[in-house]
Each structure stands twice: as C-alpha cells, then as structure tokens.
Design a protein that fits this description.
Layout: E1 3-5, E2 12-14, E3 21-23, E4 30-32, E5 41-43, H1 50-61, H2 70-73, E6 75-93, E7 96-103, E8 123-124, E9 135-136, H3 144-147, E10 153-171, E11 174-181, E12 187-188, H4 198-218, H5 222-246
Parallel strand pairs: 5-10, 6-9
Antiparallel strand pairs: 1-2, 3-4, 5-8, 6-7, 6-10, 10-11, 11-12
Helix pairs in contact: 4-5
C-alpha cells in the first residue's frame, strides 16, 4: 500500500485504494488524499457567529447599489452553517510563492471561486476539532482536475475546509441567496435586488433639455436665461434628492 506522512505527527499512514479519508493511528488526525497523493487536511475556524453573519448581510444589503430598504425589508428564510472544501495549492512561480484556491466540491453557490485563505488560520483537522452544527460538504472534484493547468512548481497541496454562512432571503416576492465568508466577513452574491436608475436618468434628461433651451434663450436675453438656469440647477438637485430618498 502507498504511504504518506501524517501532517501533524509525521507518522507513516497507509492509504487504502479508493478511500478519500483516513485517520492517523498515532495522533488521530484525519488525512485526505486522492490520486495526487495529497496528505494534508486543514480547516479554518468560524470567526463569525450566526448573528454576526446576519449583521454582515444587513450592512451589505444597505449599500448604495442595493434596492432601497433591502437591509430592513429582506426576509431571511434560512441560515446555514457550512464547511465547504477547497484545494489550496502553494506554487513556486518564478521564485515567488503563489497560493491558488480552487473548489473541491461541485457548487453553484456564489463566490466560492473567489475565496482567500487567511494566513495563520489553518488548523490541522483532527478528532479534537469541533464542527458542531456545521454541514461538512464532501469533495467530489479530484485534485488532478486542476494540476495540469497550474503555473510553476508545486510546494504544497492540501484540502481545506472553509467556513461559510449560507443565507437565503426573499424581497418583493423573489428569492435570493448570499454567502458570507466566516473568516473575512466578505459577502458574495450572484444576484440581488438593485436600485433602479430609471428615475435618475429621467432627471438627467430633463435637466439637460432645460439647459439646452436656456442656452438658446441666453443668445437673445442673457439675464432671464441665467435666472432660469439657476432655477433648473435647484430643481435638478431637489429632484435627485427626492429620488434618492424614495427609490
């Protein structure tokens, strides 16, 4: 049987063909491997509680590009604590180290191709690590799927379980989903309710046409044209302010 060294205690561990996970008989560490013979298995602890994740989502929903009052009116229908598997490749590229993260599990969830492993937060995944109440998604993509396309030379390759909060919500009768990175508080979403720009565009067009007309008036009556331009400036300002508050 092939062997790898345990990443925690360095004891030899025999690998049975066709098995993805095994346990070190010496220290109890869980070890991952595939056809690439990777024997490193890490996990990143959750830094955000469920309430923290919901608060992070609400702050994100209050951004200027989001629909008005999305932060207050979004109805959260489900919150799920998940450990998602990714492959971490440390590569030597022209004398410098690059860290490349790729999903180890098939997914349509947003943002999971953009995760960044924070330095110093990796923990060896062994029997002492508590995954209470978190869903552990099993990898179903082989590491060899990525190896041929990676730059440089390999320094380390490992499986890392990444902590995320999956939040489902509804707004105006439509369902949406966001992912909150539980290590960095970054929020990912493929689709979300956006603030309409039609009203702003209408105000801009009306203001432009008004200034165009007033420009012609100025060629024959400068003072009245300047007064009208001043009124137009104020009107555009207050209309824009009204649109921002209501939409």
């Amino acid at each position: 049987m092939p062997q790898v060294n345990c990443p925690k205690c360095a004891a030899p561990v025999e690998l049975d063909s066709g098995i993805k996970f095994t346990k070190c008989n010496y220290c109890g560490s869980l070890i991952f491997f595939d056809r690439a013979s990777a024997g490193f298995y890490y996990v990143i602890p959750f830094k955000l509680s469920q309430n923290d994740a919901i608060g992070t989502f609400r702050r994100w929903a209050g951004g200027s590009t989001k629909a008005k009052d999305l932060d207050r009116q979004a109805n959260i229908t489900a919150v799920k604590k998940v450990y998602f598997p990714v492959y971490m490749f440390r590569r030597d590229v022209d004398g410098r180290e690059e860290v490349i993260i790729e999903p180890a599990g098939s997914t349509t969830l947003p943002g999971l191709h953009s995760l960044k492993v924070p330095g110093g937060d990796l923990k060896i995944f062994d029997q002492s690590f508590d995954t209470t109440e978190a869903e552990l998604i099993k990898p179903d993509i082989e590491m060899t799927h990525y190896l041929n396309s990676l730059p440089g030379k390999s320094k380390e390759q490992s499986l890392v379980y990444f902590p995320i909060w999956k939040i489902d919500y509804t707004f105006n009768g439509k369902s949406y989903q966001v992912i909150v990175d539980a290590s960095s508080s970054e929020v990912f979403s493929n689709e979300f309710p956006t603030r309409s720009s039609a009203a702003y565009l209408l105000v801009a067009i009306v203001g432009f046409l008004a200034f165009l007309v007033e420009g012609f008036i100025a060629t024959v009556a400068l003072v009245p044209a300047l007064i009208l331009m001043g009124i137009t400036v104020l009107a555009v300002f207050f209309l824009s302010l009204t649109v921002a508050r209501r939409l």
